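User: Can you write out an input/output pair for a complex, sequences first and structure second?

Assistant: Here is one pair. Inputs:
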Amino acid sequence: MSTRRKPPRLDVDALLSDEATRIVVTCGSGGVGKTTTAAAMALRAAEAGRRTVVLTIDPARRLAQSMGLTELDNTPRRVKGVEGELFAMMLDMKRTFDDVVSAHSTPDRAEQIFANPFYQALSSSFAGTQEYMAMEKLSQLAESGEWELIIVDTPPSRSALDFLDAPQRLGRFLDGRMIRMLVAPAKAGGRASIKLVTVGLTVFSKVLSKILGGDLLQDVSSFVAALETMFGGFRQRAEQTYQLLKAPGTAFVVVAAPEPDALREASYFVERLSRDDMPLAGLVVNRLHRAVPGLTARRAEAAADALAEKAGSDLALAEAALRVHVETALTADHDARMARRFAAAHPDVATVAVPALPADVHDLDGLRRISALLANG
Amino acid sequence: MVAPANSAVATVPGVPTDARLHVVTGKGGTGKTTVAAALAMALAEGGRRTLLVEVEGRQALAQLFDVPALPYEERHLAAARNGGEVVGLAIDPELALLEYLELFYNLKRSARVLKRMGAIDFATTLAPGVRDVLLTGKVKETTTRSDKSGHFIYDAVVLDAPPTGRIRQFLDATTEVANLTKAGPINRQSVGVLDLLHSTRTAIHLVTLLEEMPVQETVDAATELAANGFHLGAVVVNRARPTLVDDDQIGPGGRVDLAELRHGLDAAGVDAALAEPLAGQLVEYADRQAVQAENRARLAAIPAPRIELPDLTPPVDLGELNELGAYFLDVS
């Protein structure tokens, strides 16, 4: 058997208490406990004396309640029952978008945009809007200078990587060549490609009108015309946010569960972050099951079967304990194998494992428990 | 129970018998792809042909069935028991749009120009939901496609659908886009898609774990779907842990009779020194069991049959998919 090197340990306390750490982004696929991890880290940082805000996106009801959050209102609310300053907020996507529009245009024009049906659809359901607005909100929090530490949870995307790309995609979309051509075909096209573009564009408009109907195109055109003053603004902001994520002081924490899909996403993430020079702090493997050491599943099963055969009522308790051990040990083996496989593929990624808890977190004490486990591995 | 070949379409007990399109949704991480695959295998048993469709560009079917990445083409995925077949299809929205243009407008050549210009990407991103319209449109086409003699090509279609968080939007995308585009072929085509999706020919199965968030989302989605005129199929509980501890084995405050436990371990030849840690493990498991029971009770509020699948450690293989599939047909 080859010797396995243990991955370096992710020192969560060192990360959170370091004054140089200003932004922590938790990312990972859906259902791995990303939001809980973000909230637990924020609580830990606040109780260590740092003025902290956690930006959550669509948290579980009970988790939100545990932090006193009852509505999407885009305002950081102080969390009661915490020693230190912890603020929490839930992202209101539509409102954030509205704010961006208001900030970049005159009141009249803003009204015009808000009334546009295309804007209404875009601001509430465009794939990527949530990601874009989460990053926008992060920029605003960072610019306010009010926070020593900002912890931001990322939206549950189809792919965990979406939030890195979505801001630019939306920026490109609102700012792009296509949309400009749509609004002002005459102005579009470089010297060499005028002909192709013109031909292509005619077909393009025709096709779009056919598929989507004329009304939508009309709405889009007037929306884009109204946004004209903001052209460049969107893309520029997307670019700024992207730079903010790369800046010193930002740290990414990838969250996964010991399942093949979640770890595959985590792998993509780790690779992508390193390709983009984004600072990866490490990996949190949530919900790792552990079993009592010193008894294999196979032996426990044989012992339980032996007891079942004897069928004494005084033996039922031990049989149950042994059956529970079989179940737990098999799960623990599986989880450990998953974690090892990831570590073998990414030997330099600092990792901390958080044991599975019987129930979901629904109060501050539960969060504290998680944060202690995060810190102590 | 083995259905005779060429009999009527296999059905999931409690689900309308004319369901031909099975939409499988669930919160991320609940294993909806595995469940969709197991259902497709079950419905193909006994000489039938089912189509298993994915729409999220993840190549999840290829991974699950251990075959090379699926092109935008219907491909044999696996043989089902007793001579059935499961065919796979990964729908790519861009290619679906090109296909659509070709079909309705004979626009293949100009479509290629558009693709080069990035216009297709633009168009599928332009109107929220256009992507979903194309995807559901293609699903409808495969579900209703028939041969010359009028027999359906597929006995059933199983869709590995987007997660519960956006399933209603996905299924109703055609309505939304039809509202945005008051004319045009999408508007006209939308009627057929909506009819199919809202009829009893379509059953929507919700996959969940017995944990708070997935159960909450499942309950919310069930309510929303029903309120919007969709027909629920089964609620599929995935990875349920077996019930191993009796209520009376643990006293108030999580107390375990250590003497009795030691005695039993002794009788089984297991080191009695393990009694204390094993008792701790037992209590924790019992807590988990209680959480499961609580979540199961919350699911009972949904007016749909419930199917519980055992906990299989991933990756799941073909034999195990068959094993899981049996749960769909044997539930009473």
